[in-house]
Structure formats: structure tokens, C-alpha cells
Amino acid sequence: MLRFELLATHGRARRGRLTLNHGVVETPVFMPVGTYGSVKGVLPRDLDAMGAQIILGNTFHLWMRPGLDVLRRFGGLHRFERWPRPILTDSGGFQVWSLGDMRTISEEGVRFASPVNGDRLFLTPEVSMQIQTVLDSDVVMQFDECTPYETKGHVTTEAEARASMELSLRWAARCKAEFERLGNRNALFGIVQGGMYEPLREHSLDALVAMDLPGYAIGGVSVGEPKDEMRRIVAHTPHQLPAGKPRYLMGVGTPEDLVDGVANGVDLFDCVMPTRNARNAHLFTRFGDLKLRNARFREDERPIDESCTCHACASGFSRAYLHHLERCGEMLAPMLATIHNLHYYLNLMREMRDALDAGTFDAWRARFEAERARGV
Amino acid sequence: MLRFELLATHGRARRGRLTLNHGVVETPVFMPVGTYGSVKGVLPRDLDAMGAQIILGNTFHLWMRPGLDVLRRFGGLHRFERWPRPILTDSGGFQVWSLGDMRTISEEGVRFASPVNGDRLFLTPEVSMQIQTVLDSDVVMQFDECTPYETKGHVTTEAEARASMELSLRWAARCKAEFERLGNRNALFGIVQGGMYEPLREHSLDALVAMDLPGYAIGGVSVGEPKDEMRRIVAHTPHQLPAGKPRYLMGVGTPEDLVDGVANGVDLFDCVMPTRNARNAHLFTRFGDLKLRNARFREDERPIDESCTCHACASGFSRAYLHHLERCGEMLAPMLATIHNLHYYLNLMREMRDALDAGTFDAWRARFEAERARGV
To answer: Which residue of B45, B80, B324 is in closest CB contact with A65?
Structure first.
């Protein structure tokens, strides 16, 4: 099931509530990424404590490991990874596409060799729906071809982007048919493609809206394009999607990207940035970003951010201590950094929801930008 | 300060209470090892929740990184690593000894090149006391030479072990003098050496007892000797130490070693085994040990140990899930394994304290051995 209520709007920005089979999600929301059934570096208990409402899993990775036999035995991903709240899974399309020369794309689907054991595999819209049904994902993404911004220096032309987008539309129809045939009771989202070309985005959007799916995503952004290109598409597409359905901007982004996305009417985001950057000692804060490896933190007794209420900051771990842990390669460095960064992202969304509830989103945004520019 | 109360005895086994400047420690106790100011893979909050009473730090490592200037700024190790309870530190002797060809031992101390930046350094009994005073360790260990069991295939002779033990005794006297000169208000422990030779152990013990230190350790075991040699020394030395003072068996060991140590009158233990083995997917349980990488766990829906109350077991993470995380190199595998193993070790000690309180240690021990032999 999926129910979406629009609670408030402010310009294009929206405050909503999404009800899925495993629970309620207040939007706009950030979804931490749990590729292999684990959000890297953090206990599910701590994810829950910091207010994560919905997390991602990657269909391709979970298909490879642990494999469908194991996931079927556990009745899906929720029980396997001990996360009782909603889960969204991607379709596997982006991952097989990323295999480059190791895969062949045809009308039927994508042939490739398993990077784990070399098995010859075939991922199609139907197979993607079958896997996501085994996973019991609350939100199932259509199998699509993620149109690249460029390939080995060649920027995708409009004709290439059109052909790719049209293939994704044909795959969307096959996904819908298979999803229904399987009797899946969760929600299938379509993905708007079309590269950096607005007319193609509109064509994709119209065709998907005509399919009357319960939600829509904007794909093919944050794939290596210049930031202003991304901003152009984010300003163009989301607000044209049906107002009564949730909108998901895939794989985005920095704190500034999230704020820009919300301002443009996006409801859901996911990105590996808070977790991956944490493992690279890159911390996000209200007052700008902080690189723990910088020697200036060697004797710094302050927490990462005095105004932050995450476990790492509230427990008083100092920048000097975190710098030391990072330098010594101690696991506690990425553990605390992951808690901090995810808390920052989740809290950023919470602040936006509160500002939308209170009708003060513009003032909130001005303060956000001023504080981020201040520097730590 | 140090106060030690003997609450109960059972044969040679003892139930005690150790009061240190940062708190009370119920003995017998296991001390998790936090080499660089972090017990690897676990948040201090979780260490506290699982009942850790006292943890270790390594003087040599902390001297190298973060360095004394940083530790002095934080007023010692407790505030730096956010651990308010007692801390014991070793003397640095074992680590400089481990540098092998990179160090030179003389009567005065040990000259070596810093493995971090190549600086030429000189560690002496006095310097060790000075560093441990900056760390504000609740228990300060004397600087000693850890007599090796063998060196490049040559088993240490009685004459070599005697010379080494006598050097450690002279260093103990220098440590005591420097500790007093510094006005250190914590507690200095002497270390009984003498290799695998009982007469040397007795000589060392008598000389140290004559110095009237507040506690004593048994060093130079668990350094590569055959298990029966270790058991022989553990059966020989601890119970001859003064009954009214705490006894610490350094660097030991397996669950069976801890039980054997307690039965022989040991009060304190430390070892990297629970944390290091966790990172190698080796789990300790009541019913024997479990190697997570074993393919037989691929579909195993059971927790590590159904009778265990640690966060990993009580939250229902399955062997299949942990096997999967380990296979994928996910950080959550060592995180959950560390919680489980430390909980197992701390709980093992808790069970022994309870059995000593109840006067049922022999029965407890028989059950422990039968259960461990059962297999998971």
C-alpha cells in the first residue's frame, strides 16, 4: 500500500506524510543507504534513535549476496537486517549499467557476469520486480536505464538520451505488468529520465503519469553532470509531477542539494554522502564542513559542533580525539563520524519539515545558507 | 588511592572489591584493551552498558599518538577518551621490547626509534612513570623487561631469565622512587617476572613484596610458551602473592584461561582476544567458539547464542546475517561481533563473581567446562 497526504505547501516545497506497509514516513525525508542490508558503520538501533524513518537497500547487491534463497527464507529484507520500518530498493538498473564493458544491454534486459562468482546473469524488468518482491520492499523502483551524462568524455546527445528514455518507458510498462502479475502489495515508482534535455524529461514524465503509478522519481541526475545542469533539471521536473503523489530525487546529494530539492518540490532523497564521507573523515555541520585529518584539530577540545545533539557531539568527544582516532585508523572514528553525519542529514530534514509546518521555510533557508557559509 | 577488600574466598579463588580514584571495581574482573584510547570497534557508551568496569590503555602507543602535549591539555586519558571509570596502563616495556632489532636495552632503559616519525627516543622507568602520571592512570604498571619464552627458536635459559628478572627488580625500585617523587596519587603495581622458572618467580615475588607495593602482576606469560607451561606458572605464582592485595595476570587469555586464573587466585585480567577475534569473525559463546565465515551459517536463522543477552543476540541478528555482513566486508560485522565477545567475557567474570559470592564456584566451573565442550 501507499497513501500520501499533502499537509502543507510553501511555494513549490511540500510537507507530506507517506504511509507504507511497514510504517509512516514524514516528508520531506532523507533515506540512509544500506546497500548490502546494512547502513555502513552504524547499528540499526542507533539509526532508529536518530530518527531514520526509511532506509534503502540495493537490489543488485542483495541479489548477488546473500542471494534470494536466503532472503526468501527470512521473508524479505526487513527481518534479515532487523529493520522493521519502511525500506525502498532500487531496481538494480544503475548497478548493472555501472558494470560497463562487463554487460550488454538489449530491449529484453541486461546480460552480465556476476562480479561475485562469474555466473552469467540476465536482469530484466520482470526479474527486477521478482527480486524486489522477495525483498518485500515498501517502495519498489522500476527497472530503468540510467542515462549517463557522458561516456568516456562523450556527452550524451539528445537522440541518445531519447532512445534511452524511451527504452526506460517500455521497461516501466513491463515492470507494472509484472508487479501486478506477482500480486505485490507494496508500491511501484516510475523513474523520469531524459538526461539534461527538458523536452525529453517532459515526454518521460507525461508517459509515466499516464501509467498512474503511486509515486515518481527523478533519475539520471547526480551522475557526473556539472552542478548547474543538475540544478536546472531539479528546477524543471519535480514540480510538474502530480501534486498528490510522492516525488523522489535519486542519489542526491549535499546539504545544499537537499534544501534546493525541497524548495523545488521533492519529497524523498537518498545518498551515500553522509556515510561514505564519514568513512573519509569528512564531517557535515551546520557551520560548514570539517575534515578531521586537518592538523589544526590536533589539540581542539571542542566537539564537532557544539550546537549538535548527536551522540558523538553530545557525549563530548572532541575534535582532537576524533583527529587522533582517524590518524590511528581506529574504527571508532568512522563509527562516530557516521553517527554525526547521518544525524546531521536527518536533522536537516527535520528542520525543513518543522519550517514547512510553521510556514517559515524561506527564513529557515536564509539562516541555513548564512550558517553554512560561516565555517567551523 | 587503592583499597582492596577481600569479600570471599573459595580454595584459592577470591571475590574482591578494588576502590580506585575513578571508581570501584568488583573482582575478579576482565579489562577490555583500549590501546590508542579506544577499545576497538565499540562505543564507550556500549562498553559501559555491558558492564565494563575498568579498561586498559597502552602507554607506548599513547606516548607516540596523540602525544603527551595533547593528553596533558585534556588532564589525562579519561577526559580525552570520554571514559570516566578506572583505567590501567601498561608501562610501555612490552611494546619497546617488541620492536626487536629497532631497540637497544641497557641498565638505564630502552633506546629506540619512533615507529611513527623516526624520532630517537629513550624509555626508562622514570619516563614511564612520568607518562603514566600525565595519563592519570588509576593503576600504573612498573617499567619491566618482559622475559621472552624464546627468541628466534632459542628458549630463554634460567641464567638469561634471572638476569632479565633482576633488571626488572632494579627498574621496579626506580619506578617506585620516581612515582613517589612525582606525587602520583594513583596506585603502582609491581610485575613478577622469572620466565618459566619457579625459583626465579619466587625470588622476584619476594623482592617485590618487600617493596610493599599496592598490587602485583604476573608478567611474562602468554608470550608464546606452550599452554601447559603457562598453566604451571599460573598455578605456581598468584596464590603466593599477599592475600590482601590485588593480583593481575597480564595479557591472558581464552575463556578457559580466565577460569583457570580465577581458580588460582587471580583478580584482574586483560587481553585483546575478545576484540581482535571479533574483527576476525571469531565469536566466543557459552557452547564453544563459532567462526562466522563458515558456510554452514549461510541460512542459519538463529542468533549467535540464544542464551546470550548481548545487544547482538538480544536484537535477533542471525548467524546468516552476520555471515553475510562478514562476507561483504561490512563494518557492522566486527561491530556486532565486538559487542558480543566483550559481553561474553564480561559476563563470564560476572558469573564467576556470583558463583564466588554464592559459594558455588566448583559447580559453576564444572558446568562451564561441560557447556563449552558441547559445541555451538
So the answer is: B324
